[in-house]
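Repro case for the chain-ordering regression, as requested:
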Amino acid sequence: MTCSSVNNILMKKRNFIKIISKLSFALCSIPFIKSINFDKIKKQIYKKKFSKVWILDINDS
Amino acid sequence: MIVDNLDLIKNKNFFVIIIGSGPAGISSAIQFEKKNIECLIIEAGDKESKSQNMDYLRGEVEGQAYNDLENSRSRQFGGTGNLWGGNCNPMNTWDFKDWPIQKKDLAIYEKNAKEILNLKNNFFLDKYNDNLNLYNLDWSDVKFGNKYYNYIKKSKYIHLSLNTIFESCNGVDGYVESINCIKEKRYSLKSKYFILSCGGMENSRLLLWSKATTPKLFSKSLPIGNYYMDHPFHSVGEGLVNYKKLNIYNKINNIKNAPLITCDSLMNLSANKNFMLKKNILNSGLYIGFQDANKYDSVFKQLRCIAPNFIKKIYDEKATKDTYKIKIDILQEQEALYNRKISLSEKKDPNNMSLIKLNWWKTSEEKLSAKIISEELSKIFLKNEIGRIGLDEFLFNDEDYETTVGYHQMGGTRMGSDHKDSVVDKNLKVHGFVNLFVSGSSVFRSSSHVHPTYTIVKLAIRLSEHISKL
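-- result from build under test --
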Protein backbone atom coordinates (compact mmCIF):
# COMPACT_ATOMS: atom_id res chain seq x y z
CA MET A 1 0.00 0.00 0.00
CA THR A 2 1.46 3.31 -1.07
CA CYS A 3 1.67 6.39 1.10
CA SER A 4 -0.81 8.30 -1.10
CA SER A 5 -3.48 5.53 -0.94
CA VAL A 6 -3.25 5.52 2.92
CA ASN A 7 -3.82 9.27 2.85
CA ASN A 8 -6.87 8.81 0.59
CA ILE A 9 -8.44 6.31 2.99
CA LEU A 10 -7.83 8.64 5.94
CA MET A 11 -9.35 11.57 4.04
CA LYS A 12 -12.47 9.52 3.22
CA LYS A 13 -12.81 8.48 6.87
CA ARG A 14 -12.57 12.10 8.03
CA ASN A 15 -15.17 13.23 5.47
CA PHE A 16 -17.49 10.40 6.50
CA ILE A 17 -17.23 11.42 10.18
CA LYS A 18 -17.89 15.07 9.26
CA ILE A 19 -21.01 14.13 7.27
CA ILE A 20 -22.31 11.86 10.04
CA SER A 21 -21.79 14.53 12.70
CA LYS A 22 -23.59 17.16 10.56
CA LEU A 23 -26.44 14.74 9.85
CA SER A 24 -26.86 13.83 13.50
CA PHE A 25 -26.97 17.54 14.44
CA ALA A 26 -29.56 18.17 11.75
CA LEU A 27 -31.65 15.17 12.85
CA CYS A 28 -31.49 16.25 16.51
CA SER A 29 -32.58 19.76 15.52
CA ILE A 30 -35.76 18.70 13.67
CA PRO A 31 -38.04 18.68 16.74
CA PHE A 32 -36.96 22.26 17.55
CA ILE A 33 -37.28 23.68 14.06
CA LYS A 34 -41.03 23.75 14.25
CA SER A 35 -41.13 25.59 17.56
CA ILE A 36 -38.32 27.99 16.67
CA ASN A 37 -39.48 28.98 13.22
CA PHE A 38 -43.19 28.47 13.52
CA ASP A 39 -43.80 32.15 14.01
CA LYS A 40 -41.74 33.13 11.02
CA ILE A 41 -43.52 30.97 8.48
CA LYS A 42 -47.02 32.30 9.11
CA LYS A 43 -48.56 33.64 5.93
CA GLN A 44 -50.33 36.90 6.48
CA ILE A 45 -53.22 38.10 4.41
CA TYR A 46 -55.10 41.41 4.34
CA LYS A 47 -58.90 41.20 4.42
CA LYS A 48 -61.29 44.12 4.29
CA LYS A 49 -64.44 44.13 6.41
CA PHE A 50 -66.58 47.24 6.78
CA SER A 51 -64.11 50.08 7.26
CA LYS A 52 -61.25 47.94 8.57
CA VAL A 53 -58.42 46.10 6.84
CA TRP A 54 -57.61 43.05 8.97
CA ILE A 55 -54.15 41.54 9.03
CA LEU A 56 -54.79 37.82 9.39
CA ASP A 57 -53.17 34.44 9.14
CA ILE A 58 -54.04 32.53 5.98
CA ASN A 59 -55.56 29.76 8.14
CA ASP A 60 -57.87 32.10 10.04
CA SER A 61 -60.66 31.64 7.49
CA MET B 1 -45.92 89.46 44.75
CA ILE B 2 -48.96 90.65 42.84
CA VAL B 3 -48.66 94.08 41.23
CA ASP B 4 -52.12 95.66 41.06
CA ASN B 5 -50.93 99.14 40.17
CA LEU B 6 -48.21 99.44 37.54
CA ASP B 7 -47.62 103.08 38.55
CA LEU B 8 -45.82 101.71 41.61
CA ILE B 9 -43.19 99.90 39.55
CA LYS B 10 -43.17 101.80 36.27
CA ASN B 11 -39.80 103.38 37.06
CA LYS B 12 -38.24 100.17 38.33
CA ASN B 13 -35.61 98.70 36.05
CA PHE B 14 -36.11 94.95 36.29
CA PHE B 15 -33.37 92.47 35.46
CA VAL B 16 -35.84 90.56 33.31
CA ILE B 17 -39.43 90.96 32.18
CA ILE B 18 -41.26 87.77 31.22
CA ILE B 19 -44.19 88.25 28.84
CA GLY B 20 -46.66 85.43 29.47
CA SER B 21 -47.33 83.24 32.52
CA GLY B 22 -47.74 79.74 31.08
CA PRO B 23 -45.51 76.77 31.98
CA ALA B 24 -42.49 78.38 30.27
CA GLY B 25 -42.86 81.81 31.92
CA ILE B 26 -43.54 80.44 35.41
CA SER B 27 -40.69 77.90 35.19
CA SER B 28 -38.24 80.65 34.20
CA ALA B 29 -39.46 82.92 37.02
CA ILE B 30 -39.05 80.16 39.63
CA GLN B 31 -35.49 79.59 38.46
CA PHE B 32 -34.68 83.35 38.67
CA GLU B 33 -36.10 83.41 42.18
CA LYS B 34 -33.74 80.61 43.22
CA LYS B 35 -30.89 82.93 42.25
CA ASN B 36 -32.44 85.92 44.07
CA ILE B 37 -33.02 87.70 40.76
CA GLU B 38 -36.05 89.98 40.54
CA CYS B 39 -38.31 89.52 37.57
CA LEU B 40 -41.66 90.82 36.43
CA ILE B 41 -44.23 88.60 34.72
CA ILE B 42 -46.89 90.38 32.70
CA GLU B 43 -49.96 88.33 31.87
CA ALA B 44 -52.63 89.55 29.44
CA GLY B 45 -55.36 87.53 31.12
CA ASP B 46 -56.72 87.48 34.63
CA LYS B 47 -56.33 84.85 37.34
CA GLU B 48 -59.35 83.03 35.91
CA SER B 49 -60.38 82.59 32.29
CA LYS B 50 -62.81 85.22 30.99
CA SER B 51 -65.05 84.81 27.98
CA GLN B 52 -64.23 88.27 26.56
CA ASN B 53 -60.57 87.21 26.28
CA MET B 54 -61.59 84.72 23.57
CA ASP B 55 -61.76 87.66 21.16
CA TYR B 56 -57.97 87.96 21.40
CA LEU B 57 -57.47 84.29 20.56
CA ARG B 58 -59.60 83.92 17.46
CA GLY B 59 -58.02 83.59 14.07
CA GLU B 60 -58.27 82.18 10.57
CA VAL B 61 -57.27 78.68 9.49
CA GLU B 62 -56.28 77.87 5.91
CA GLY B 63 -55.44 74.44 4.54
CA GLN B 64 -57.10 71.58 6.37
CA ALA B 65 -59.39 71.40 9.39
CA TYR B 66 -57.72 72.36 12.64
CA ASN B 67 -58.93 72.89 16.21
CA ASP B 68 -60.63 76.23 16.88
CA LEU B 69 -57.82 78.62 17.67
CA GLU B 70 -59.68 80.27 20.55
CA ASN B 71 -60.27 76.90 22.20
CA SER B 72 -56.71 75.72 21.65
CA ARG B 73 -55.20 78.42 23.85
CA SER B 74 -55.84 80.13 27.14
CA ARG B 75 -55.41 83.78 28.09
CA GLN B 76 -55.17 83.55 31.88
CA PHE B 77 -52.56 83.12 34.60
CA GLY B 78 -50.98 79.70 34.02
CA GLY B 79 -51.95 79.71 30.34
CA THR B 80 -52.72 76.31 28.80
CA GLY B 81 -50.93 74.88 31.85
CA ASN B 82 -54.39 75.07 33.44
CA LEU B 83 -56.11 73.04 30.76
CA TRP B 84 -53.55 70.44 29.73
CA GLY B 85 -53.91 66.68 30.14
CA GLY B 86 -50.78 66.39 32.30
CA ASN B 87 -48.95 63.86 30.10
CA CYS B 88 -45.18 64.11 30.15
CA ASN B 89 -42.38 62.24 28.42
CA PRO B 90 -38.93 63.26 27.21
CA MET B 91 -37.81 63.71 23.63
CA ASN B 92 -35.40 61.05 22.39
CA THR B 93 -31.75 61.53 21.52
CA TRP B 94 -32.35 61.36 17.76
CA ASP B 95 -35.18 63.92 17.97
CA PHE B 96 -32.45 66.53 18.52
CA LYS B 97 -30.48 65.59 15.39
CA ASP B 98 -31.10 68.94 13.67
CA TRP B 99 -31.15 71.03 16.84
CA PRO B 100 -28.20 73.18 17.93
CA ILE B 101 -28.46 71.53 21.36
CA GLN B 102 -28.54 67.86 22.31
CA LYS B 103 -30.66 65.84 24.72
CA LYS B 104 -27.78 65.84 27.23
CA ASP B 105 -27.86 69.67 27.31
CA LEU B 106 -31.31 69.44 28.91
CA ALA B 107 -30.62 66.38 31.07
CA ILE B 108 -29.16 68.45 33.92
CA TYR B 109 -32.48 70.28 34.34
CA GLU B 110 -34.59 67.12 34.68
CA LYS B 111 -34.64 67.20 38.49
CA ASN B 112 -35.85 70.81 38.61
CA ALA B 113 -38.41 70.21 35.86
CA LYS B 114 -39.80 67.19 37.71
CA GLU B 115 -40.17 69.29 40.86
CA ILE B 116 -42.08 71.98 38.97
CA LEU B 117 -44.33 69.37 37.36
CA ASN B 118 -44.66 67.09 40.44
CA LEU B 119 -43.39 64.12 38.44
CA LYS B 120 -42.49 61.07 40.49
CA ASN B 121 -41.61 58.31 38.04
CA ASN B 122 -38.61 57.63 35.85
CA PHE B 123 -38.90 57.55 32.10
CA PHE B 124 -37.80 54.53 30.09
CA LEU B 125 -37.34 53.59 26.45
CA ASP B 126 -36.92 49.82 25.94
CA LYS B 127 -36.40 47.79 22.81
CA TYR B 128 -39.69 45.99 22.09
CA ASN B 129 -38.64 44.20 18.92
CA ASP B 130 -36.20 45.01 16.10
CA ASN B 131 -38.32 47.95 14.95
CA LEU B 132 -40.35 49.26 17.88
CA ASN B 133 -39.57 50.70 21.30
CA LEU B 134 -41.69 50.58 24.43
CA TYR B 135 -41.90 53.86 26.32
CA ASN B 136 -43.88 55.37 29.17
CA LEU B 137 -45.62 58.60 30.10
CA ASP B 138 -45.70 60.17 33.52
CA TRP B 139 -48.70 62.19 34.62
CA SER B 140 -48.47 65.63 36.20
CA ASP B 141 -51.28 66.82 38.45
CA VAL B 142 -50.04 70.42 38.24
CA LYS B 143 -52.45 73.09 37.07
CA PHE B 144 -50.05 75.99 36.81
CA GLY B 145 -52.54 78.69 37.77
CA ASN B 146 -53.68 76.87 40.91
CA LYS B 147 -50.28 75.72 42.04
CA TYR B 148 -48.24 78.87 41.44
CA TYR B 149 -50.54 81.84 42.12
CA ASN B 150 -50.06 81.77 45.91
CA TYR B 151 -46.43 80.82 45.45
CA ILE B 152 -45.83 83.97 43.38
CA LYS B 153 -48.02 86.07 45.68
CA LYS B 154 -45.67 85.25 48.56
CA SER B 155 -42.49 85.59 46.50
CA LYS B 156 -40.12 88.49 47.12
CA TYR B 157 -38.47 88.18 43.74
CA ILE B 158 -41.30 87.37 41.33
CA HIS B 159 -43.66 90.25 40.52
CA LEU B 160 -46.85 89.41 38.64
CA SER B 161 -49.05 91.92 36.87
CA LEU B 162 -52.31 90.46 35.53
CA ASN B 163 -54.54 92.00 32.84
CA THR B 164 -51.43 93.57 31.32
CA ILE B 165 -51.40 93.37 27.54
CA PHE B 166 -48.08 93.45 25.68
CA GLU B 167 -48.40 95.90 22.81
CA SER B 168 -44.99 96.52 21.22
CA CYS B 169 -41.24 96.92 21.76
CA ASN B 170 -39.18 100.12 21.81
CA GLY B 171 -35.62 100.04 20.60
CA VAL B 172 -33.32 99.91 17.64
CA ASP B 173 -30.94 97.42 15.98
CA GLY B 174 -31.77 94.47 18.16
CA TYR B 175 -31.66 96.27 21.50
CA VAL B 176 -35.04 96.38 23.24
CA GLU B 177 -35.04 99.38 25.58
CA SER B 178 -38.56 98.91 26.87
CA ILE B 179 -41.91 97.33 26.08
CA ASN B 180 -45.24 99.08 25.77
CA CYS B 181 -48.13 97.48 27.54
CA ILE B 182 -51.67 98.33 28.52
CA LYS B 183 -53.22 97.93 31.94
CA GLU B 184 -56.15 100.32 31.89
CA LYS B 185 -53.66 102.87 30.54
CA ARG B 186 -50.42 102.63 28.57
CA TYR B 187 -47.10 101.96 30.28
CA SER B 188 -43.53 101.67 29.08
CA LEU B 189 -41.61 99.11 31.17
CA LYS B 190 -37.82 98.87 31.17
CA SER B 191 -35.66 95.84 31.77
CA LYS B 192 -32.22 94.47 30.98
CA TYR B 193 -33.63 91.33 29.34
CA PHE B 194 -37.01 90.37 27.92
CA ILE B 195 -38.43 86.87 27.50
CA LEU B 196 -41.40 86.27 25.22
CA SER B 197 -43.20 83.18 26.53
CA CYS B 198 -46.83 83.44 25.45
CA GLY B 199 -47.32 79.97 23.97
CA GLY B 200 -46.69 78.10 20.74
CA MET B 201 -48.83 80.37 18.57
CA GLU B 202 -48.83 83.67 20.41
CA ASN B 203 -45.02 83.90 20.43
CA SER B 204 -45.09 84.02 16.62
CA ARG B 205 -47.98 86.48 16.53
CA LEU B 206 -46.38 88.92 18.95
CA LEU B 207 -43.00 88.72 17.24
CA LEU B 208 -44.59 89.24 13.82
CA TRP B 209 -46.59 92.14 15.25
CA SER B 210 -43.45 93.66 16.82
CA LYS B 211 -41.70 93.41 13.46
CA ALA B 212 -44.62 95.08 11.72
CA THR B 213 -44.79 97.92 14.25
CA THR B 214 -41.07 98.36 15.01
CA PRO B 215 -39.17 97.26 11.87
CA LYS B 216 -35.99 99.18 12.84
CA LEU B 217 -35.59 96.78 15.77
CA PHE B 218 -35.15 93.79 13.47
CA SER B 219 -31.74 93.81 11.82
CA LYS B 220 -32.17 90.44 10.14
CA SER B 221 -34.84 88.81 8.02
CA LEU B 222 -36.17 85.92 10.10
CA PRO B 223 -38.63 83.10 9.25
CA ILE B 224 -41.03 84.10 12.06
CA GLY B 225 -44.15 81.96 12.07
CA ASN B 226 -42.74 79.39 9.62
CA TYR B 227 -42.13 75.68 10.31
CA TYR B 228 -45.26 75.35 12.46
CA MET B 229 -46.06 71.85 13.73
CA ASP B 230 -48.65 70.03 15.85
CA HIS B 231 -49.27 66.38 16.66
CA PRO B 232 -52.15 64.91 14.63
CA PHE B 233 -54.00 62.47 16.90
CA HIS B 234 -56.36 59.86 15.53
CA SER B 235 -57.47 56.26 15.69
CA VAL B 236 -55.67 53.70 13.52
CA GLY B 237 -57.49 50.52 14.39
CA GLU B 238 -58.80 47.96 16.83
CA GLY B 239 -58.42 44.29 17.51
CA LEU B 240 -58.64 41.30 19.80
CA VAL B 241 -55.70 40.08 21.85
CA ASN B 242 -55.04 37.41 24.41
CA TYR B 243 -53.56 39.45 27.25
CA LYS B 244 -51.98 36.40 28.93
CA LYS B 245 -50.08 35.58 25.74
CA LEU B 246 -49.02 39.20 25.47
CA ASN B 247 -47.69 39.17 29.04
CA ILE B 248 -45.79 35.94 28.27
CA TYR B 249 -44.36 37.48 25.08
CA ASN B 250 -43.20 40.51 27.06
CA LYS B 251 -41.63 38.25 29.69
CA ILE B 252 -39.78 35.85 27.39
CA ASN B 253 -38.44 38.75 25.35
CA ASN B 254 -37.08 40.34 28.55
CA ILE B 255 -38.88 43.64 28.03
CA LYS B 256 -37.85 45.04 31.37
CA ASN B 257 -40.43 47.76 31.89
CA ALA B 258 -43.36 46.13 30.08
CA PRO B 259 -46.60 46.88 31.91
CA LEU B 260 -48.50 43.88 33.24
CA ILE B 261 -51.47 43.94 30.91
CA THR B 262 -54.85 43.91 32.60
CA CYS B 263 -58.15 45.53 31.75
CA ASP B 264 -57.78 49.30 31.20
CA SER B 265 -53.99 49.02 30.77
CA LEU B 266 -52.22 51.28 28.32
CA MET B 267 -49.13 50.35 26.35
CA ASN B 268 -47.08 52.86 24.36
CA LEU B 269 -44.89 51.92 21.42
CA SER B 270 -42.95 54.02 18.93
CA ALA B 271 -40.64 53.38 15.99
CA ASN B 272 -36.94 53.10 16.72
CA LYS B 273 -34.34 55.14 14.87
CA ASN B 274 -33.27 52.35 12.48
CA PHE B 275 -36.84 51.52 11.49
CA MET B 276 -37.56 55.19 10.81
CA LEU B 277 -34.44 55.46 8.63
CA LYS B 278 -35.06 52.14 6.85
CA LYS B 279 -38.67 52.97 6.01
CA ASN B 280 -38.11 56.71 5.66
CA ILE B 281 -40.97 57.51 8.03
CA LEU B 282 -41.80 60.07 10.71
CA ASN B 283 -42.17 58.82 14.24
CA SER B 284 -45.43 58.20 16.04
CA GLY B 285 -46.53 57.12 19.46
CA LEU B 286 -48.99 54.21 19.48
CA TYR B 287 -51.48 54.27 22.37
CA ILE B 288 -52.81 50.73 22.81
CA GLY B 289 -55.73 50.61 25.23
CA PHE B 290 -57.05 47.29 26.59
CA GLN B 291 -60.70 46.75 27.45
CA ASP B 292 -62.96 43.84 28.36
CA ALA B 293 -64.49 42.25 25.29
CA ASN B 294 -67.70 40.31 24.82
CA LYS B 295 -68.95 38.25 21.94
CA TYR B 296 -71.41 40.97 20.90
CA ASP B 297 -68.65 43.52 20.32
CA SER B 298 -68.27 44.60 16.70
CA VAL B 299 -64.67 43.36 16.75
CA PHE B 300 -65.88 39.84 17.54
CA LYS B 301 -68.57 40.11 14.89
CA GLN B 302 -66.15 41.23 12.20
CA LEU B 303 -63.63 38.51 13.01
CA ARG B 304 -66.36 35.87 13.17
CA CYS B 305 -67.12 36.71 9.53
CA ILE B 306 -63.63 36.93 8.13
CA ALA B 307 -61.53 34.87 10.55
CA PRO B 308 -63.85 32.13 11.91
CA ASN B 309 -60.99 29.76 12.67
CA PHE B 310 -59.33 32.41 14.83
CA ILE B 311 -62.54 32.90 16.82
CA LYS B 312 -63.07 29.12 17.04
CA LYS B 313 -59.57 28.79 18.45
CA ILE B 314 -60.40 31.32 21.20
CA TYR B 315 -63.42 29.19 22.18
CA ASP B 316 -61.50 25.88 21.83
CA GLU B 317 -58.79 27.19 24.13
CA LYS B 318 -61.50 28.48 26.52
CA ALA B 319 -59.72 31.81 26.27
CA THR B 320 -62.67 34.18 25.93
CA LYS B 321 -61.98 35.64 29.40
CA ASP B 322 -58.35 36.19 28.43
CA THR B 323 -59.33 38.02 25.27
CA TYR B 324 -59.37 41.80 25.40
CA LYS B 325 -60.52 44.30 22.87
CA ILE B 326 -57.84 46.81 21.99
CA LYS B 327 -58.19 50.29 20.60
CA ILE B 328 -55.17 51.82 18.93
CA ASP B 329 -54.65 55.58 18.66
CA ILE B 330 -51.64 57.39 17.34
CA LEU B 331 -49.95 60.70 18.15
CA GLN B 332 -47.89 61.66 15.15
CA GLU B 333 -44.76 63.63 14.45
CA GLN B 334 -45.09 66.39 11.85
CA GLU B 335 -42.20 67.41 9.68
CA ALA B 336 -41.09 71.06 9.99
CA LEU B 337 -42.21 72.57 6.66
CA TYR B 338 -41.44 76.17 5.74
CA ASN B 339 -44.94 76.96 4.43
CA ARG B 340 -46.86 75.39 7.28
CA LYS B 341 -46.96 78.67 9.11
CA ILE B 342 -48.50 81.37 11.26
CA SER B 343 -48.90 84.81 9.73
CA LEU B 344 -50.85 87.94 10.62
CA SER B 345 -54.47 88.10 9.62
CA GLU B 346 -56.14 91.27 8.41
CA LYS B 347 -58.66 90.78 11.20
CA LYS B 348 -57.87 92.58 14.44
CA ASP B 349 -58.32 91.82 18.14
CA PRO B 350 -60.12 94.27 20.49
CA ASN B 351 -56.79 96.01 21.03
CA ASN B 352 -56.47 96.54 17.25
CA MET B 353 -53.57 94.10 16.95
CA SER B 354 -53.62 91.57 14.11
CA LEU B 355 -55.02 88.14 14.86
CA ILE B 356 -53.45 84.88 13.69
CA LYS B 357 -53.76 83.27 10.30
CA LEU B 358 -52.67 79.64 10.40
CA ASN B 359 -51.85 77.57 7.34
CA TRP B 360 -51.86 73.93 8.41
CA TRP B 361 -52.27 70.59 6.72
CA LYS B 362 -51.47 66.90 7.04
CA THR B 363 -49.13 65.19 4.60
CA SER B 364 -49.19 61.81 2.84
CA GLU B 365 -45.89 61.00 4.63
CA GLU B 366 -47.69 61.27 7.97
CA LYS B 367 -50.39 58.83 6.85
CA LEU B 368 -47.81 56.39 5.45
CA SER B 369 -45.85 56.55 8.71
CA ALA B 370 -49.00 55.75 10.72
CA LYS B 371 -49.71 52.79 8.41
CA ILE B 372 -46.21 51.32 8.59
CA ILE B 373 -45.92 51.58 12.39
CA SER B 374 -49.43 50.17 12.93
CA GLU B 375 -48.73 47.29 10.52
CA GLU B 376 -45.59 46.47 12.44
CA LEU B 377 -47.60 46.10 15.64
CA SER B 378 -50.20 43.96 13.82
CA LYS B 379 -47.45 41.66 12.56
CA ILE B 380 -45.97 41.18 16.05
CA PHE B 381 -49.39 40.17 17.39
CA LEU B 382 -50.05 37.89 14.41
CA LYS B 383 -46.66 36.15 14.34
CA ASN B 384 -46.74 35.44 18.06
CA GLU B 385 -50.40 34.35 18.17
CA ILE B 386 -51.22 37.21 20.54
CA GLY B 387 -54.14 38.51 18.53
CA ARG B 388 -55.44 40.12 15.36
CA ILE B 389 -55.68 43.78 14.43
CA GLY B 390 -57.89 45.55 11.91
CA LEU B 391 -56.48 48.86 10.70
CA ASP B 392 -58.65 51.75 9.59
CA GLU B 393 -59.26 51.66 5.85
CA PHE B 394 -58.11 55.23 5.22
CA LEU B 395 -54.53 54.12 5.89
CA PHE B 396 -54.69 52.07 2.67
CA ASN B 397 -56.21 54.64 0.31
CA ASP B 398 -55.88 58.28 -0.69
CA GLU B 399 -58.94 59.49 1.20
CA ASP B 400 -58.68 62.28 3.75
CA TYR B 401 -59.18 61.24 7.34
CA GLU B 402 -60.53 62.85 10.44
CA THR B 403 -58.05 63.84 13.04
CA THR B 404 -57.82 66.08 15.99
CA VAL B 405 -54.49 67.51 17.05
CA GLY B 406 -52.68 67.21 20.35
CA TYR B 407 -53.05 70.93 21.15
CA HIS B 408 -49.25 70.83 20.99
CA GLN B 409 -48.39 74.00 19.11
CA MET B 410 -44.74 73.89 18.10
CA GLY B 411 -42.38 75.78 15.82
CA GLY B 412 -42.83 79.27 14.45
CA THR B 413 -39.80 80.71 16.24
CA ARG B 414 -37.60 77.69 15.91
CA MET B 415 -34.09 77.25 17.21
CA GLY B 416 -31.05 77.09 14.92
CA SER B 417 -27.66 78.51 14.15
CA ASP B 418 -28.61 80.11 10.82
CA HIS B 419 -30.97 83.11 10.83
CA LYS B 420 -32.21 82.11 7.35
CA ASP B 421 -33.96 79.00 8.67
CA SER B 422 -34.40 79.80 12.36
CA VAL B 423 -35.51 82.62 14.65
CA VAL B 424 -33.62 81.99 17.89
CA ASP B 425 -30.13 80.68 18.59
CA LYS B 426 -29.20 77.79 20.87
CA ASN B 427 -29.63 80.06 23.91
CA LEU B 428 -33.10 81.11 22.70
CA LYS B 429 -31.98 84.66 21.90
CA VAL B 430 -33.64 86.08 18.79
CA HIS B 431 -31.07 86.27 15.96
CA GLY B 432 -29.76 89.80 15.58
CA PHE B 433 -31.03 90.85 19.02
CA VAL B 434 -29.07 91.72 22.14
CA ASN B 435 -31.61 91.15 24.89
CA LEU B 436 -34.78 89.52 23.51
CA PHE B 437 -35.38 85.80 24.13
CA VAL B 438 -38.22 83.44 23.23
CA SER B 439 -39.29 80.52 25.40
CA GLY B 440 -41.83 77.73 24.86
CA SER B 441 -42.62 75.07 22.29
CA SER B 442 -42.41 77.64 19.48
CA VAL B 443 -38.62 77.17 19.62
CA PHE B 444 -38.87 73.42 18.88
CA ARG B 445 -37.01 72.50 15.73
CA SER B 446 -38.68 69.10 15.41
CA SER B 447 -41.88 67.87 16.96
CA SER B 448 -41.11 64.20 17.65
CA HIS B 449 -44.25 62.46 18.95
CA VAL B 450 -43.74 63.26 22.61
CA HIS B 451 -45.81 65.59 24.79
CA PRO B 452 -43.99 68.93 24.81
CA THR B 453 -44.49 70.36 28.32
CA TYR B 454 -41.63 68.49 30.01
CA THR B 455 -39.24 69.77 27.32
CA ILE B 456 -40.73 73.30 27.54
CA VAL B 457 -40.04 73.42 31.28
CA LYS B 458 -36.47 72.14 30.90
CA LEU B 459 -35.76 74.69 28.17
CA ALA B 460 -37.22 77.50 30.32
CA ILE B 461 -35.03 76.56 33.30
CA ARG B 462 -32.00 76.41 31.01
CA LEU B 463 -32.85 79.85 29.65
CA SER B 464 -32.99 81.37 33.15
CA GLU B 465 -29.67 79.75 34.01
CA HIS B 466 -28.18 81.27 30.86
CA ILE B 467 -29.58 84.78 31.41
CA SER B 468 -28.59 84.82 35.07
CA LYS B 469 -24.98 84.27 34.03
CA LEU B 470 -24.94 87.14 31.51
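Ordering looks correct now. The interface with chain B takes residues 39-40, 42, 44, 47-57, 59-61 of chain A (CB under 8 Å).
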